[in-house]
């Protein structure tokens, strides 16, 4: 029987020609529990990606023998099932990075960057794309910085004593990763974890998406549908960018939190719901 120690470490393909940056990032990723293939050129990266399985690719855009973005687009045309690509880009090349996201890249970070922010993005990508860290479920390790270690130590206690949690922080620091780890401690890996980006749902649809609706509740409602609260029954509902939710909906959300019951759009009866709620935002909600 395999033990956690025998589980292969996830591998990162780092494409960076600068010796100082490349060595520094390689060391940091290894501290985080990754194996690292450090490639100085696009040609080396192409060879590494063809011969080994990687959890995440972290690439500079400017390389000595090619453009990192062109390398990605070319690889995507040859093998659509690529590992997630995260690009490191100078401020002046943000437009190019955004175009690469639209083409299928997973994320980017602007130089100069905080190494902790890069690590958080890489951990989130590895978790999102199904890579378990060091044999644990869901990538339990948050990082090696003192702040992240304190959060990791606090989460098991929070999971035992609270059903609601608010996570604040800038975009890309790993708020969803923290939410998933909280869920793992609170409800276990078998319970549902339902992640919702509030900013991506039109205001006219958010009530029906959260609370569900009955058949005939509105034009096009051909059958009843469970909302996100019901889908998270017995598990965790993660509402990302809660600060973008309309105030009127926040009031309805508070009532569900207080009563643990909801009424579907077009419904006449209330439904009991059992869930934990984790909200996240990059905004200062007290401002």
From TrEMBL:
It comes from the Bacteria. The modification 4-aspartylphosphate is found at residue 60. Keywords: ATP-binding, DNA-binding, Nucleotide-binding, Phosphoprotein. Pfam families: Response_reg, Sigma54_activat. Residues 11-126 form the Response regulatory domain. One of its GO terms (molecular function) is DNA binding. CDD domains: AAA. Residues 141-287 form the Sigma-54 factor interaction domain. GO terms for biological process: phosphorelay signal transduction system; regulation of DNA-templated transcription. This is Sigma-54-dependent Fis family transcriptional regulator.
């Amino acid at each position: 029987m395999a033990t956690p120690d025998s589980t292969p470490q996830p591998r990162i393909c780092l494409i960076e020609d600068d010796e100082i940056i490349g060595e520094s990032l390689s060391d940091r990723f290894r501290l985080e529990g990754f194996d690292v293939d450090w490639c100085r050129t696009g040609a080396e990266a192409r060879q590494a990606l063809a011969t080994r399985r990687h959890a995440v690719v972290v690439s500079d855009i400017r390389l000595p023998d090619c453009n990192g973005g062109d390398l990605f687009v070319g690889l995507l045309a040859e093998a659509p099932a690529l590992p997630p690509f995260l690009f490191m880009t100078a401020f002046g090349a943000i437009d190019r990075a955004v175009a690469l996201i639209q083409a299928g890249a997973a994320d980017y970070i602007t130089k100069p960057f905080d190494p902790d922010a890069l690590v958080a993005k890489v951990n989130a990508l590895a978790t999102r794309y199904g890579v378990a860290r060091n044999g644990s479920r869901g990538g339990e390790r948050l990082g090696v910085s003192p702040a992240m270690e304190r959060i990791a130590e606090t989460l098991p206690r929070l999971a035992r004593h609270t059903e609601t949690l608010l996570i604040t922080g800038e975009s890309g620091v790993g708020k969803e990763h923290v939410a998933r780890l909280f869920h793992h401690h609170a409800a276990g890996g078998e319970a549902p974890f339902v992640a919702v980006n509030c900013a991506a749902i039109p205001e006219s649809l958010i009530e029906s998406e959260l609370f569900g609706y009955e058949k005939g509740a509105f034009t096009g409602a051909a059958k009843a549908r469970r909302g996100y609260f019901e889908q998270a029954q017995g598990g965790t509902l993660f509402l990302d960018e809660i600060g973008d939710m309309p105030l009127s909906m926040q009031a309805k959300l508070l009532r569900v939190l207080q009563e643990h019951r909801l009424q579907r759009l077009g419904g006449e009866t209330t439904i009991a719901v059992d869930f934990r709620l984790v909200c996240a935002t990059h905004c200062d909600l007290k401002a």
